[in-house]
């Protein structure tokens, strides 16, 4: 435990940001259900009147055992407060009177003070000096030290991560430094936020409601889903790589399974724009296995040391295991996902199935269906890609126009068109759905525009969630070496998708 924050204090810090005192009070109550440590963003309150009202209430109703950090960050430091340094200090002094033991003071304000020190101003007794860079990750010394001359007790460094290598550098700051909070901002920095406490960060921040910085994870998820406060060096780390990856429910699926089966493991979403960057950072994150989604299912082949025969035949990998010697082994569970999802709805042998798309998911579907005895027809935006996949899988390439003139037993969309957040788009028109069954490999939303078109024509539908669940269960068992708690994992995913669907409509 970092010395400055004391023993027994939760290092999960809920961030409270709201325009009114009333809303801020509500958020504080929610935060304290999860953690006794909370940052109060006074700068987010819309006026001095609201700041006065909240601090007056806090002084009269200070929660017992709560460790509160007052922040009134100026715009020059990346905050919302329009006042000058003197006005910021005034509100931090008022926060001390209200019972806040800590305050967060940005380095820009410290530089304006006489003697470059905050001591003697009557702010909360303990000071967290913060430095933010919302554009990039600067070069840091190997070891950070808290300068007592400035009157600070701890140091916070928050920087925008433009790559996973940036994120890893920020994470490493806490390994050799005491009383330092290190935060990797942006979606690329999300895995580092989850692993921050394990790496030695004095605190990990998470919003109770509105995010106050890019890439933040809601407090409830950070604690209950990722269990950030319980992770240790012994915890096995897995994840999903893709671009985009924010839509993925794989973290919910796998982490729910780990919790139910009491596995010391965590599953993280990695936004990967550059595969080499991700693979370079693997040792820093301690990743032992990862799922692969768009657009990397085929590109990952060039970086693997070995591939299972089926995945090599398919030409796409969605599951990678990092062996003890650091080598990478690729496999494919999408294959099983397609089979298990479609076999529940129709007899595959002898059926005519059209696949729209020619990427990694389409390849897994084509080989799976052909192996099951279906007659496979491949249609893609690029006819050359369709011919290549058809030849490899023993199917037949067809032009887009054939979807209007021929009939099929099933039609399968294996493109990302219609995926959240562009869920109002369909890859195919209603007149191209000349089949008895339509399956969309997209699972978010659970009822895509394509499936809604099919349903309007009384065509049977299969959501991509069935494939998603089946391939995920296979991955879970591949890495954990035991049967997945399927019903619990399924219920978590279905509940999330149904809630999202209800909110949308």
CATH superfamily caption of the largest domain: Aldolase class I
Spatial strand sequence of the major β-sheet: 7-6-5-4-3-2-1-8
Number of helices: 17
**Average pLDDT over all residues:** 94
Given the C-alpha coordinates, what overall shape results?
elongated
Report the sheet with the most strands, covering strand number, pairing sense and barrel closure.
8 strands, parallel
Count of structural domains: 3
Described by its quaternary structure, the protein is single chain
Please, could you describe this protein's structure?
The protein is α/β, with parallel strands linked by helices and 505 residues long. It has three domains: 3-233, TIM Barrel (Alpha-Beta Barrel); 237-334 and 472-482, Leucine Dehydrogenase, chain A, domain 1 (Rossmann fold, 3-Layer(aba) Sandwich); 346-468, NAD(P)-binding Rossmann-like Domain (Rossmann fold, 3-Layer(aba) Sandwich), CATH 3.40.50.720. 36% of the residues lie in helices and 20% in strands. The protein is built from 17 helices and 20 strands. The protein has helices spanning 21-34, 48-60, 85-97, 107-110, 164-172, 190-199, 219-225, 250-261, 275-285, 309-314, 334-343, 360-371, 383-393, 402-405, 449-456, 464-480, 486-504, and strands spanning 12-16, 37-41, 67-71, 102-106, 126-133, 154-160, 180-185, 204-207, 236-242, 265-271, 287-292, 306-307, 319-322, 328-331, 352-356, 375-379, 396-397, 408-413, 435-440, 460-462. The strands form three sheets. An eight-stranded parallel beta sheet has the order 7-6-5-4-3-2-1-8. Helix 4 (107-110) links the parallel strand 4 (102-106) and strand 5 (126-133). The longest helix is centred in the C-terminal third of the chain and has 19 residues, at 486-504.
């Amino acid at each position: 435990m970092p010395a400055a924050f004391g023993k027994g204090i939760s290092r999960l810090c809920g961030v409270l940001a709201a325009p009114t005192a009333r809303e801020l009070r509500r958020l504080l109550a929610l935060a304290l259900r999860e953690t006794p440590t909370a940052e109060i963003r006074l700068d987010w309150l819309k006026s001095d009147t609201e700041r006065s009202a909240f601090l007056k209430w806090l002084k009269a109703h200070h929660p017992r055992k709560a460790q509160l950090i007052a922040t009134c960050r100026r715009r020059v430091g990346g905050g919302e407060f329009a006042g000058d340094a003197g006005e910021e200090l005034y509100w931090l002094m008022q926060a001390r009177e209200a019972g806040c033991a800590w305050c967060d003071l940005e380095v820009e304000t410290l530089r304006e003070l006489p003697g470059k020190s905050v001591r003697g101003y009557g702010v909360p007794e303990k000071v967290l000096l913060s430095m933010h860079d919302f554009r990039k990750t600067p070069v840091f010394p190997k070891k950070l030290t808290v300068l007592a001359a400035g009157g600070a007790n701890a140091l916070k460094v928050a920087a925008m991560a433009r790559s996973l290598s940036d994120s890893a550098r920020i994470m490493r700051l806490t390994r050799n430094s005491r009383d330092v909070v290190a935060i990797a901002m942006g979606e690329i920095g999300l895995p580092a936020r989850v692993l921050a406490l394990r790496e030695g960060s004095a605190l990990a921040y998470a919003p109770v409601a509105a995010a106050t910085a890019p890439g933040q994870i809601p407090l409830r998820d950070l604690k209950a889903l990722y269990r950030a406060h319980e992770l240790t060096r012994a915890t096995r780390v897995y994840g999903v790589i893709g671009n985009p990856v924010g839509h993925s429910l794989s973290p919910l699926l796998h982490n729910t399974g780990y919790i139910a089966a009491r596995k010391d493991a965590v599953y993280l979403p990695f936004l990967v724009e550059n595969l080499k960057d991700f693979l370079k950072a693997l040792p820093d994150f301690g990743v032992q296995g990862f799922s692969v989604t768009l657009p990397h299912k085929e590109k990952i082949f060039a970086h693997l040391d070995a591939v299972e025969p089926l995945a090599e035949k398919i030409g796409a990998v969605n599951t990678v295991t990092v062996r003890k010697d650091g080598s990478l082994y690729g496999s494919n569970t999408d294959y099983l996902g397609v089979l298990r999802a479609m076999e529940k709805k129709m007899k595959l042998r002898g059926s005519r199935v059209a696949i729209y798309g020619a990427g990694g998911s389409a390849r897994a579907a084509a080989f799976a269906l052909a192996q099951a005895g279906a007659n496979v027809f491949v249609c893609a935006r690029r006819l050359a890609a369709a011919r290549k996949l058809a030849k490899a899988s023993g199917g037949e390439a067809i032009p887009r126009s054939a979807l209007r003139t021929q009939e099929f037993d099933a039609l399968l969309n294996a493109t990302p068109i219609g995926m959240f957040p562009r869920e109002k788009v369909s890859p195919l028109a209603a007149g191209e759905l000349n089949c008895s069954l339509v399956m969309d490999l997209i699972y978010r939303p659970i009822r895509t525009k394509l499936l809604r078109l099919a349903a309007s024509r009384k065509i049977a539908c299969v959501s991509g969630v069935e494939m998603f669940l089946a391939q995920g269960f296979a991955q879970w068992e591949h890495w954990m070496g035991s049967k997945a708690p399927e019903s619990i994992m399924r219920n978590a995913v279905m509940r999330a998708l149904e809630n999202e669907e209800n909110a949308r409509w």
